[in-house]
Specification:
2 domains; nine-stranded mixed β-sheet
Length: about 375
Amino acid sequence: MKKKIRKIGMLSSIALMICLGVTGCYPDGKVSLEEKKETDSNQINIDENASHIEGKLDEGLFVNAQTDIKSDADWHDNNVILKSWDVDKVSNVFGNGRNISENKTMPNMHNDNLNDNYIYWDDGSSIVIQNGNLQYNTKTELEYSYLGYLYGTRPYLTDETTEKFPETEISGIDKEAAIEQVKSILDEIGVEVSKPRVYSLTYEKLEENTDYSQTDPNGNAPHQWTKEDAAYAIVFKGTIDTLPITEVGYRSGPAAGERIVGIVGKQGLIAFHALNIYELETENELSDEILTTQTVLENIQQKFRNIMITDKVEIEKINLEYVPVLKNVEKGEYELKPMFVCMARQNIEHSTDKEDNGLIGDSSIFPIIFDAQTGMEIQIGASCIL
């Protein structure tokens, strides 16, 4: 069923000069702000199919965003549960004929009616199997923590990750074979995904992002990287009926977005995590129509209207995605609702301790999420939809 698009509310009296990612004016397909100015400042003409939007929303507030918005697709309010796994099948997929040294079952910490499985192989590899979650780690991952370097302290990846680990060729590893290895695992365990993103954890980039003066709580220094340690991170976005499920989510607890990632090095699969994976129970028609991108921009503008912005805020991504909404944590019941997931970056300058009082900059990236039907902002860190 094709969903209609609607526009809510009156346009702001403050001009939104928007530059759309269309062809014709510059080699990169962008149109200058001066050329897009309208004589009537209350008129905002946005191509809802544009893949890029650029312009000034307000003083200190800008949009320079890649967009992935399939507003006319067949979105639903989905009832879902955390995916249950065939433990024997998962064990065989990851075990690959190795000897199991230990296999134990323990009650789930959130639900006594569910069990978590822990499987250990004799080479030091292990997997944790929980409803919605698979965490496979080799001894190499446990010692080197590739995923720690990739994700840092965030539960999701951002453009900063691309800046830290850009996709480049790694000698000695077939990138396409690495992608296929991770994708084949997902096919075997029944997880629907879209096309992957690839991050190259090269020796040079791992060295650059390692502070050898730091130690862990046990006093151990970081692993000393070599060129043999280079690896690809293959990251997928989960889907339902080909429509994307967010990686961001609106909290870090039991209603986070999905995380699907495999680390592949010269020795093969190093780690594989599939977290917060949902399976469809029922589909419900939307109670209202999907908002326009224009309305989302107005909502962003309104959010910051009463805030004095001292450091530039720039919206870098605007995606329409399914976001999990917790219904019953004990039963593992959720809704997946279409929402606009916007990623914003703020570059914060502050003084150094140097005599010249120079400025250094820190970058903060944060999500802004709006319900795609009501336009209400989902408060980050909240335990429910507000």
